[in-house]
Write a structure and sequence with these properties.
This protein is α+β, with helices and mostly antiparallel strands. The chain is 61% helix and 16% strand. A hairpin with a 2-residue loop joins strand 3 (151-156) and strand 4.
Length: 178
């Protein structure tokens, strides 16, 4: 996974710079999300990995599924990825692009996992604290994860704040083994 992110980063940065220059961040966001969705389909994954399917056929398949949702620049980009056998990293490219776009717009996405339902007041307090710490707007994505046992775990970019019971138990296990 880390390797795919490393390979995807230059592509995401290039698309980000291109979209900034042409002032169409949202359009590229939609096109990348669509392309990433296509690349994650089970049948498409099998075709991408098949040596009998040419790069031209793969890119044409994306164009046929995406129809008119891909402009000429996006078509060129998808063709380039297919020719370089990088089309399977589209989900990572899209993810990195979204992070760069959010940072540019002054918004960070926070993945908040909680062992139990978080009430609105607690969530607002947590978001306020995170916005103050990161000095920008925070867009929360809240999920319930009973395996945490208690507490919460927050992921913002590559920073993780683990205040869960499970995280503390794992830390204690590591400390006791060393």
């Amino acid at each position: 996974m880390a390797e795919a992110i490393t390979v995807a980063r230059p592509y995401a940065e290039a698309i980000y710079k291109l979209s900034l220059k042409s002032k169409n961040l949202s359009q590229w966001s939609k096109m990348l999300q669509l392309a990433a969705g296509i690349a994650e389909e089970k049948q498409i994954k099998m075709l991408i990995g098949n040596p009998k399917v040419s790069a031209e056929q793969i890119s044409q398949l994306f164009f046929d599924i995406g129809k008119s949702n891909f402009d000429s620049e996006a078509r060129n980009f998808l063709t380039l990825l297919a020719e370089n056998k990088r089309i399977m990293i589209l989900p990572q490219i899209s993810q990195l692009y979204e992070q760069m776009k959010a940072q540019y717009e002054g918004v960070l996405e926070a993945k908040i996992a909680s062992a139990f339902e978080i009430d609105a007041k607690q969530l607002k307090k947590l978001i306020d604290d995170l916005e103050q710490k990161f000095n920008c707007k925070i867009e929360p994505k809240v999920s319930i994860d009973p395996e945490l046992i208690g507490g919460i775990k927050v992921e913002i970019g590559d920073e993780i704040f683990d205040a869960s019971v499970r995280g503390k138990l794992e830390a204690m296990t590591v400390a006791l083994k060393s």
